[in-house]
Amino acid sequence: MKKNPVSTICKYLVLAVIMIFLLFPIYWMVVTALKSNMEAYLYPPTFAPKHVVTDSFHSLFTKNNQFFVYYWNNFIVSAWSAFICCLVAIFTGYALARFHSKWTMIVSSLLLATQMFPIISRMISLYSMMRKMGIINTRFGLILAICAAQIPFCSILMSSFFANIPKEIEEAATIDGAGRSKILFQIVTPLVKPGMVAVAIYAFLMTWDDYLHAATLIQSDNLRTLSIGIALRYLGELSYDWSLINAISVIGTVPMVLLFFFFQKYMVKGLVAGAVKG
Amino acid sequence: MNKPLSKEQGDRWYAFLLTVPAIVMATIFILIPIVDSIWKSFLQYGVKNIISGKPGIWNNFGNYLRLFASGALPNAIKNTFVFVFFVIVCQFVLGMALALVLNSNIKGARFFRSIMMVPWVVPTVISALIWMWLFQPQYGLMKYLANIFTGGRVTDFAMLNNPSTALIGVSIAALWKQIPLMTLLLLAGLQNVPDDIIEAATIDGAGKVHRFFSIVMPYMSSVIKVAVSMSIIENFKQFPLFWTMTSGGPNGSTTNLAILSYREAFVSMNLGSGASVTTIWMILMIITISLYNHFFKTPDLT
Predict the structure, then answer these.
(1) Which CATH number does the domain B41-295 belong to among 3.40.50.720, 1.10.3720.10, 3.40.50.1820, 1.20.1600.10?
(2) Which residue, of A45, A99, B40, B90, has the greatest Cβ tally within 10 A?
């Protein structure tokens, strides 16, 4: 094919414009976090900090360190939810991928349907229900409510990984006399490790991002998670401390970016498989 | 397939057992609460009922009538649909443009493909903060850029504080966060388009635009359908971005159904009224998705 210089220029232009739109705000966040508050409030703004200072990070670690309580809570809740979702998704995903009966059809359409219900609708009822059960304002209750919301998509994601395992492996194992549970846990599950990673990371990312569950179910400051903690503690006053807020943003984002890049291969494969099949 | 019946029955039981945990979780924490909140939407049910444990009182559709009469609900419905439509259209066009460029063997495509995903992993509240800072009315970068690009004519640029532009401001933040995933999915779809058919069409003299609409798009239709419907659902439910950036203001111009129901239920603590908003919201969402599925049937190419 002949190369058309105009179309090549257009291509790079489109790439540059969209990439700047996507990446410049990240740069701006990092740069503002490294400015002193005086410089952050300079108008016109400086595109690179005149003096790189770590004041805002320093104050985050020493004075405003309630942030790390939220951070730790968020980590615990996300890790538990990743673990539980992954476990339940193995059971459900395998059932949906291997056994095709009326029941599994009902289950899979039910799981898809749950994606359509708004969280707030559930919370209105869960708020009084969980209060009666005595698990409101506890980490346990929060984790359960979040897991319930993540399990449907995680199960569907996992089932697309199970569906890719050739059935012959199981048939051979059956002939060798292996029972159903042995086949699932000792033969098939080790083969879907990439799926487990994808599901666990997905659940972790989604829980890390949770706002509404924690906003309605958690009342004590020491149990608050990251999003709600930031919103309530650092955005309360009329004048924001923008370089502190940007430092918080940087620290809140970094683990997610690392996690994603580290497991990128699995994540991309999983998301694409989930979307194309589900 | 002449399997003995006992094996088949055993399989059925096993499949049932495996789905029990998911079904129990979904029933307790999703289905029962949904039915319960629909029921509550017809009741006078506030924070007093929760504390005293008294059941709510039937109030003859009072919650619905009040919200319609005050204009709050029609306004929220309008904002929700405007937001969903605007974000989906822009997201699809920009996502497709980026996917096409990245799919065309340009230098560094792999690098750009992974670096572009960063906004997607930024937590929603933090992406709201990033854009609030960019749009900040006194010191924000956008004010400065608006000033420069209009040759100094625009001196006051407060996107989120102006009722006519606030919704656009939130949409930009939503686009920023969502374009990466859309691009990733479309890119996967583009890789499913068989090269030989494209080549054949090129030899037959089909132009680029023609090839795109009559070969590439149909082959991608199932991916497009899933990607767009996922995005419709996500934007229909969008809450933290609005709540952090504008709290529904100024003047109700960014109050969508999520914000309205949250305000009614958890700020005014009138849970019955909040439930009536979420009920209308669910009905609208189900109608929208059904219409979308109805009008966007995928031609079967495989």
Answers:
(1) 1.10.3720.10
(2) B40
